[in-house]
Amino acid sequence: MPALEYGKDRELLQSFLQNFTEDDGKAKYMEILQDIANREQAVLAIDLGDLHQEGQTDLLEKIGSNALRYVRLIAEAADRLMPAATRTDLPEDVFDVLQRQRQRALEMRQQEAEQAGQTAQNDRQQNLPSELTRRYQVTIIPCSMDDSKQQHMRMRAVSALHVGHLVTIKGIVTHVTDVKPLIKVATYLDEESGVEVYQEVTGREFQPLEPNKLPEQLAQQHAGRKPRLALQARGSKFQRFQEVRIQELSCEVPQGTTPRSVSVQLRGELTRRVKPGDAVTLTGVFLPEPYTGYRAIKAGLITSTFIEAMNITHDKQSYTATSLTKEQIAEAHAIRAGNEPYERLAASLAPEIFGHADVKKALLLLMVGGVSRQLPDGMRLRGDIHVCLMGDPGVAKSQLIKHVAHISPRAVYTTGKGSSGVGLTAAVTKDPNTSEMVLEGGALVLADKGICCIDEFDKMEDSDRTAIHEVMEQQTVSIAKAGITTTLNTRTTLLAAANPAWGRYDKRRSPAENINLPPALLSRFDLMWLILDKVEAESDRNLADHVMRVHAEGVVPNTSGNHELLTPDQIRAYIGYVKTLDPYIPESLTGFIASNYAAKRAMDKTAEHSYTTARTLLSILRLAQALARLAFREVVDQGDVIEALRLMECSKLSLHEEGEERQTQDVMSAIYSKIRDALLRTPDNSGLSWAEIRQYTSSFEVAQVRETLETYDRLQVWSLDRTDPSAPCINPLGEAEKQGPLEQPQQLAVGA
User: Where do the TM regions start and end (predicted)?
Assistant: First the structure.
């Protein structure tokens, strides 16, 4: 394009910056330039949507196909329009000091020339390069950056045709280098004459000025003598530089191929914006980069490619970094005020999967998590809830954990057989650019403050699985490799799925033989859920009907009764809001929790399936805190503890051998057994409220529970309080009933 055309485009850009106004009448870009002049802002972000709004379609196409040149034109137009600073209290930086010294040196040379009777000549080199005086960075925002349906290219679609073009891609950040200074303008000082010489650097490498390439005026002053130039680092201009690698999304990788990656260069204010594991949308200029050194000899005319970033946004953030809108907060309160939000949220998790109501509740609590505590002595108590799903093939374990990975803002999905110890924790690699040894985080490090989902957990090698022990409890990874000794944060929730030792659960063997995981690892899971594929005619018929409806209608049937299913965005917003709450355990619950923990420990003497340790007590607290968060409460109540204990019991119920006792027990006897056990655990036999009764008998229908309560009330086993007919409760036991344990009446025993 002729220089004249670039001049016209610069005038158009200058007019656009000067005259563009928003709907409220404010001059958008002139206000930004004023902030830059006042040193309150360092980025001039040009939204291409504003150019499209002004009807500058030709200019848009030129920027898209020749982005770097037009970034320079925008900077030149902004330099012309730069207003004077309106603040008088601007802090003085190094550049201001150097400018004052340069001006003083120029005045002294002019005085010396006048005293010598010579005419002072204007030194062309004293006209500072615009890059040296510019205090801002120009970036470009694509038209649809604020649109949820933003158009982006697949990483595999970026080819040689797009060299020099503006491209937008999505990917996962896998590697991040340290931020280092990159020289933009090199300043040299002639030690004899005191004249400064400037050299603009456009790439990552530059060759210092040679004597035969000096400016004509400086060469004449030395009259054939070799000048002595010294590089002045203080007078040069440097820019922050960082290089990252972005890997294409797993959903964009064709089956049977390896994912591709691209190198991205971040400069200035765009540095330190991402870390490994972030899912980002990147807009930048696709550029070639010739090989250097020995690689250039082997490569010949082949060049590598990279993207110079212009704009970068996060697609999925951690809950703590997610800013909720007022509408999302209001919607979360509406869900909480609705009917049974706990059951509604759980039913909305993977609704296409039939059943597993309690498993989904456990996964919901996993995403919510408990409260992490930092003790005064430095010890950290984790709040993350670890869950392991073990069961027969075909019970939807993988689908459940994939759905959790989809909903969570920050999650990493991997498989046990495809992951090594360093692949999960961290590996030491050599940086190809600087030849330095750098750490690359593994799956657990990438999922920091998120969820790491590991499928086929039982297929992992024992040596690789050992690396997870420190991560699960201390939430750190200690590295001592290649001279690098450090500790990385892995504040990660672990969700694992595994099969029993022989593929399917063998009821002839003990639970310990079937689970086949070391006790040290097993005790670190807050919930170890065993899902068996049991043959039950009614359940199998309902499952088949559910699957057929999903395939026939293409929609998920609502199996949660009157609850309207929530979308993943609604669940994500609700969890993001409740994670801002920090509920605590009141002192009044200390005795209740301690007595239940002691009872669970006492059961270990006779039950082979139990593995209650001191970690189980902390698991109860974490689950109760997660339940309190879901209810928008700052204090954990007894109902939360009861539900946490119920979930822990449900997770172990499937570990029991399905003997004749459970097969011959009718519904009413099962409900009675649960209520009797609950009454015996209450302090001072204080009775049970309707809410507590439903928490213990949530797996049964309301009508069945009411019938059981009325039946045993007529038999005078307990006394009902019918003040509220819709919510009957059990009165405190009388003195006669306290003399011995509640026994099931003989006339209701099965087979009597």
Answer: none
Name the nearest CA neighbour of 227 among 237, 236, 235, 217.
217
For the chain, helix, strand, coil in percent to 5 are 40, 20, 40
Please give the C-alpha separations between residue 152 and each of 157, 252, 702, in angstroms, as whole numbers: 10, 12, 51
H helix intervals, 20-154: 28-37, 48-53, 57-65, 67-81, 94-115, 130-133
Q: DSSP letters of 484-496? A: EEEEEE---EEEE
CA distance 296 to 72: 29
| SS3 label, residue 378 | coil
CB half-sphere exposure, 433, CA atoms < 13 A: 17
Please give the mean pLDDT across all residues of the chain.
78
CB distance 559 to 351 below 8 Å:
yes
CA distance 91 to 451: 45
Pairwise CA distance, residues 316 & 409, whole Å: 5
Q: Which amino acid is at 530?
A: L
Tokens 């750490």 map to which residue?
A: 439
Amino acid at 400: L
Across 44-53, 478-487, 509-518, the highest mean pLDDT is recorded for: 44-53
Cα–Cα dist 642/693, whole Å: 10
Q: Say how far apart CA 132 and CA 238 lie, in whole Å.
A: 9
Does residue 487 contact residue 434 with C-beta atoms inside 8 Å?
Answer: no
Could you tell me the two tokens for 372? Answer: 């992490």
Find the radius of gyration of the CA atoms of the chain.
Answer: 35
**Tokens (6 digits) for 718:** 């307990």
Token pair recorded at residue 298: 């082997």
What are the tens digits of pLDDT across the range 622-642?
Answer: 999 999 999 888 999 888 888
Consecutive H or E run containing 239 = strand 237-247
- Contact yes or no for 303/290 (Cβ under 8 A): yes
CB 615 within 8 A of CB 523: yes
Q: Is residue 395 classed as helix, strand or coil in its secondary structure?
A: coil
Alpha-carbon 365 to chain mean position? 18
Is residue 704 within 8 A of residue 674, CB to CB? The reply is no
DSSP assigned state of 739: T
Assigned token pair, 430: 């050599």
**What strands, in cross-sheet order, belong to the sheet with 451-455?**
411-415, 451-455, 493-498, 387-391, 527-531
Where residue 659 falls among pLDDT bands split at 50, 70, 90? very low
CA distances from 71 to 9, 287, 729 (A): 12, 14, 73
Are β-strands 166-176 and 237-247 bridged in parallel, bridged antiparallel, or unpaired? antiparallel
Alpha-carbon distances, residue 56 vs 9, 46, 59, 205, 523 (angstroms): 11, 13, 5, 36, 64
Whether residue 406 contacts residue 497, with contact meaning beta carbons closer than 8 Å, is answered with no
CA 21 centroid distance within chain: 36
Going by their DSSP bridges, the two strands 237-247 and 261-267 should be labelled as antiparallel
> Which residues make beta-bridge pairs with 197?
188
Contact status, residue 385 vs residue 423, Cβ threshold 8 Å: no
Domains annotated on the chain, with CATH: 1-91+122-151 (3.30.1640.10), 158-316 (2.40.50.140), 326-650 (3.40.50.300), 661-748 (1.10.10)
Please report which helix (H) or strand (E) contains residue 586, including its range: none
Buried b (16+ CB within 10 A) or exposed e, 34-49: bbbbeeebeebbbbbb
Are 496 and 464 contacting, i.e. CB atoms less than 8 angstroms apart?
no
- Tens digit of pLDDT for each residue in 7-56? 888 899 999 999 888 888 888 899 999 998 888 888 999 998 888 888 88
Q: Cβ atoms within 10 A of the Cβ of 728, count? A: 18
Contact 622, 383 (CB under 8 A): yes
**Which SS3 state, helix, strand or coil, does residue 722 take?**
coil
